[in-house]
């Protein structure tokens, strides 16, 4: 997910019949010689253009070399804008890309609106049994496949080893209590901030999961965001700020602020995912990569757990270049392409076979993140899933701004969820 990044800004949508590209999906085309396909594929990429984009553009050049009749128009769209921009273009029936890099929570939403091409039986999905079960599940809606998993991710505690050591800590904290004390020690002994918080819904989830909370009980169709466990989790976040363990974050641009503070040695710890590593290593504190530590998120009173994130490649149902789009998606999700991505920018593969690749095994960051990923909590892959973050984000902002107490914040989020999940209890 990410830099949700993501997390993700979401429109509150009405799940209903749609205009534009909805309902225009064509059957999977039959291709006798894929290498002779012609056309132009417009791809909306959501990666960070400076630190991640070059790797993906290099893959595009490889693809165009293999498929000389296909040209790829690369468009970088900020991850916090892509969902709404695609929604608007698809609804209008013009301006949508042939392929979109879709956050895992968006895929079922777009599919439910009729904006995505079904991929079952087509060439876009190659060796589906090779994909990890979690990422693959995010590509399904009503029993059909609407995307192909590109990368997967979760959150971890990312820290500056030097600052922790100067504060008297050789190892990272493993519990929230230890996190608070370590952060206070860093502040007292080094002058740097202990923990830089990101005011973002996705980044609240480890605190909620840690207390045994969640947003929804999907099996029983219940909204559970306003639970005692979640109240405790939000109280924990509020305490980290009020105690000085984490400086009071800005309600906007907090992701960029936290990343800058870490890179410049002005903060010792942040929560973030593998997508952030290529940028972090550009910071002066981590020219020596050995100074960067990665550990599981600290445990709450129940467990240590972080959300499942990631990105899929999906094809617009109204695309005029379906065969070419199939080949592009197929190429970009091969084990070889995923290994290149993992080697160069530490994004986690979605294919089991990719983890046997020497380039993947040689990346120490991937090796650290993989077991953390194995314990990540799945998010609900439902059409409304992409709408759950905005109310929670607004609540988090009101908490940080001193406008709401934890219980009041969650009560309001609960009310907003009931407007989205109308038939849930």
Automatic annotation (TrEMBL):
Residues 1-19 form the signal peptide. Keywords: Signal, Transport. InterPro entries: SBP. Belongs to the bacterial solute-binding protein 1 family. This is Extracellular solute-binding protein. PROSITE patterns: PROKAR_LIPOPROTEIN.
């Amino acid at each position: 997910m990410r830099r949700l990044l993501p997390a993700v800004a979401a429109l509150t949508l009405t799940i209903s019949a749609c205009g534009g590209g909805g309902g225009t999906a064509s059957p999977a085309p039959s291709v006798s010689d894929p290498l002779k396909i012609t056309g132009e594929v417009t791809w909306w990429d959501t990666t960070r253009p400076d630190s991640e984009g070059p790797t993906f553009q290099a893959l595009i050049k490889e693809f165009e070399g293999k498929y000389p009749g296909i040209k790829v128009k690369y468009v970088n769209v900020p991850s916090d804008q892509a969902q709404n921009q695609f929604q608007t273009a698809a609804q209008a029936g013009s301006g949508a890309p042939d392929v979109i890099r879709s956050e895992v929570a968006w895929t079922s939403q777009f599919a439910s609106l009729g904006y995505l091409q079904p991929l079952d039986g087509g060439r876009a999905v190659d060796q589906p049994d090779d994909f990890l079960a979690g990422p693959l599940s995010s590509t399904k809606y009503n029993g059909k496949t609407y995307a192909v998993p590109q990368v997967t991710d979760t959150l971890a505690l990312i820290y500056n080893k030097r600052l922790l050591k100067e504060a008297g800590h050789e190892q990272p904290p493993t519990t929230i209590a230890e996190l608070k004390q370590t952060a206070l020690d860093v502040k007292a002994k080094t002058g740097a901030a202990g923990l830089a918080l990101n005011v973002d819904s996705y980044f609240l989830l480890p605190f909620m999961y840690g207390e045994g909370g969640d947003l929804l009980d999907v099996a029983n169709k219940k909204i559970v965001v306003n639970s005692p466990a979640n109240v405790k989790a939000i109280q924990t976040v509020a305490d980290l700020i009020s105690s000085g363990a984490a400086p009071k974050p800005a309600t906007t641009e907090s992701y960029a602020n936290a990343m800058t503070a870490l890179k410049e040695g002005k903060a010792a710890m942040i929560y973030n995912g593998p997508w952030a590593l290529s940028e972090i290593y550009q910071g002066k504190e981590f020219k020596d990569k050995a100074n960067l530590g990665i550990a599981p998120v600290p445990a709450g009173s129940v467990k240590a757990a972080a959300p499942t994130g990631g990105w899929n490649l999906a094809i617009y149902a109204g695309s005029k270049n379906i065969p070419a789009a199939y080949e592009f998606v197929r190429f970009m999700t091969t084990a070889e392409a995923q290994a290149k991505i993992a080697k160069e920018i530490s994004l986690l593969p979605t294919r089991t076979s990719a983890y046997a690749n020497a380039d993947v095994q040689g990346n120490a960051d991937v090796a650290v993140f993989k077991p953390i990923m194995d314990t990540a909590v799945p998010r609900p892959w439902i059409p409304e899933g992409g709408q759950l973050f905005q109310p929670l984000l607004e609540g988090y902002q009101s908490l940080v701004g001193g406008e709401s107490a934890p219980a009041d914040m969650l009560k309001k989020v609960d009310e907003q969820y009931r407007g989205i999940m109308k038939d849930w209890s």
